[in-house]
Amino acid sequence: MARPRTFDEERALDAAMRAFWANGYEATSTQDLCEATGLGRSSIYNTFTSKHDLFRRALARYIDVMSVPQAEILEDAERPGLERIRALFARIVDTEFDYREDDERSIGCLTVNTVVELARRDPEAAALVERDLDFRLGLLRVALEAGRRDGTVTTGRDPDTLARFINATIGGMRVSAQAGAGRAVLESIADTALDALRP
Amino acid sequence: MARPRTFDEERALDAAMRAFWANGYEATSTQDLCEATGLGRSSIYNTFTSKHDLFRRALARYIDVMSVPQAEILEDAERPGLERIRALFARIVDTEFDYREDDERSIGCLTVNTVVELARRDPEAAALVERDLDFRLGLLRVALEAGRRDGTVTTGRDPDTLARFINATIGGMRVSAQAGAGRAVLESIADTALDALRP
DNA sequence: GAAGTATTGGATAGGCCAGTACAAAATATG
DNA sequence: CATATTTTGTACTGGCCTATCCAATACTTC
């Protein structure tokens, strides 16, 4: 019925996500977004209405994309509970090194970056992140409860507290990675955190 | 010999620090800095040369101000090693609640915020933060080694690894606070982390 | 092939950005 | 009190920012 798009909306969204992820919301201009996606301004505004809306969608996509494999790991009934947490840590470390610009520093995690840069003044972003937090805490509790049942998690602390702790550890690893920590350091942080699950 | 200043440079720097801390570097305009400090543009540029330079000084001041009490805690020979770490955690929690805007969300830690927002593209800021990281890791090692000697830290992991872990935990607590965690949650994260020191 | 419709590129708008220019004001020194 | 010197307020600059406008384009349907 009319002229069709010459670009793939999801690819564009991915490119925008990468730009926000690597540079932050404020430091990414609409011009940057045009260059990152390869689209013109018109196409961007026609498709995504505003920079803020594009960010919202990019963040939502990031959360969706990242949570699938994490859920798979944490709900993997084949593995003991503690091993699921260990595998999650390993995945976190891998992503910190897989997704990188030319730079030697990690670009971190868009969710963490958003919490730090935007959560206080952007209620929509805060809501997305909070929803994701609840979801991930739930997944962690599942794995921790499994660990308690199968004897790999022996601490007396309740799964809720432990889930918060594991989640905080992941945040700390991501900040450490952005501060320049290498693979060995991240792995040792993860290993040490696991000690708290079987004291 | 000439007209004297009508403002206190340190007070102005403090106000600017608070502004950057609460809102981030990019989202804080020079206009915001004028309002926060109560100074006119001329006074700001006359005293601090540029927004970036003002930020650099604000960050340096933040690091200085924060590290003094933390060093005191971690080097306090009266306390066993583990208790020093515990006291440090308690202080982190307190600061997350002491320094707050009207908001119900924490403004976090300027160092962490800087790592996340700026470290990748601002080498000066990155250098300040890295220097501070080395300093704090050193303090943590001191306390952890003391803990090993006095028997309160019983884990077999080496102090360097443990220092990284404790530091990451603090980062994770700060991100959690910015994501909306309350006092009880932060305290439980800290308590759980301590479990890793005496497995 | 004509009509209708959505996309696209380029120009543009209005505002805010960091930073500067300059003159008026204020004070220490002589 | 005069002079030298610094601070301060105001106005301004050039540029980049997000967002819009509009005409040209390209495609689908009839």
Automatic annotation (TrEMBL), chains A, B:
Residues 6-66 form the HTH tetR-type domain. SUPFAM superfamilies: Homeodomain-like, Tetracyclin repressor-like, C-terminal domain. Residues 29-48 bind DNA. The keyword Lipid metabolism does not apply. The lineage of its organism: Bacteria, Bacillati, Actinomycetota, Actinomycetes, Kitasatosporales. This is TetR family transcriptional regulator. The keyword DNA-binding applies. It comes from the Bacteria. Pfam families: TetR_C_13, TetR_N. Keywords: DNA-binding, Transcription, Transcription regulation.
